[in-house]
Amino acid sequence: MSFAHDEPIETGALPALPGPSLAGVEDYLALLKPRVMSLVVFSALVGMVAAPEGLHPVLGAISLLCIAIGAGASGALNMWWDADIDAVMARTATRPVPAGRVQPGEALAFGMTLSVGSVLTLGLVANWLAAGLLAFTIFFYVVIYTMWLKRWTPQNIVIGGLAGAMPPMVGWAAMANAVSLESALLVAIIFMWTPPHFWALCLIKSDDYARAGVPMLPVVAGPDETRRQILLYALALAPLGVAPAFIGLGGWAYLAISAVGGLAFVAHAVAVYRRREGELARKAAGRLFGFSLIYLFALLAAVLVEKLAGLPAVSWA
């Protein structure tokens, strides 16, 4: 289904403002999207802890910092390019670039400097496989998702979600200088989790996206189709979330948390599917969005705690 605008969107950032920058330290921190970065850092840490021991703890900490900086660089470049969209959306209008506190050129230079620096440092401190995966993640988020998919297809968050799913594999590669089935499964879980998580928010903020001309699924296909897709993804995610317990990545605690959490995720998705009108529909979407964060955190935390505590994996023999 195509998505037409009354007027074409001008791609790229807003024109630079005259005069000196009004940015403070807090504005440059905001460019890094710290809330998004926190999930990246946590999921990368899980990948590092779950991987076979490889790096000295200090080098591991520096590697994690590089991954965090790479994620922040992606956020800065995203805000540079999307300044025109952000300016007309209520939830993003106060970001540093559309609000005029950071000029577009400054955001671009900041993001590019951090991108190059984080990749090169990770390659020197850890290995070039991890650095290459980090570079791919930054490129995919900025170029493939931000510059292309976001304004072109309602499947933007599905395909573009790969960038947000990659940190566990980058973290694993930094420690082990290899990728593995375990790290790929963590990527797959986050990849499958992203669409229902984000579409729940889109159901609430669809007017914002419509005003900005961004073809998110609720704007293009309507809220009912979005609810159907959320339910389908939830049904696929629930068994996938349990899978680490079957390949030696998760223990008994992980198995219990993932099983109960998966059922609860599906129950929330069913509620979103059934409640389609008024405030009840909005509340159902909000509850799913909030629970989805708890669900993913619980899965990753279970892996992290079990590995740090040396708890055994589930034995099916």
Automatic annotation (TrEMBL):
It catalyses: heme b + (2E,6E)-farnesyl diphosphate + H2O = Fe(II)-heme o + diphosphate. Its EC number is 2.5.1.141. It is found in: Cell membrane. The keyword Cell membrane applies. Pathway: Porphyrin-containing compound metabolism; heme O biosynthesis; heme O from protoheme: step 1/1. GO terms for molecular function: protoheme IX farnesyltransferase activity. It is a multi-pass membrane protein. It holds the Pfam family UbiA. The keyword Repeat does not apply. It is an enzyme of class 2 (transferase). Keywords: Cell membrane, Heme biosynthesis, Membrane, Transferase, Transmembrane, Transmembrane helix. The chain crosses the membrane at residues 28-51, 58-81, 125-145, 157-178, 184-204, 230-247, 253-273, 285-305. Gene3D superfamilies: UbiA prenyltransferase (1.10.357.140). InterPro entries: Protohaem_IX_farnesylTrfase, UbiA_prenyltransferase, UbiA_prenylTrfase_CS, UbiA_sf. Converts heme B (protoheme IX) to heme O by substitution of the vinyl group on carbon 2 of heme B porphyrin ring with a hydroxyethyl farnesyl side group. Belongs to the UbiA prenyltransferase family. Protoheme IX farnesyltransferase subfamily. Carbon 2 of the heme B porphyrin ring is defined according to the Fischer nomenclature. This is Protoheme IX farnesyltransferase. It comes from Methylopila henanensis.
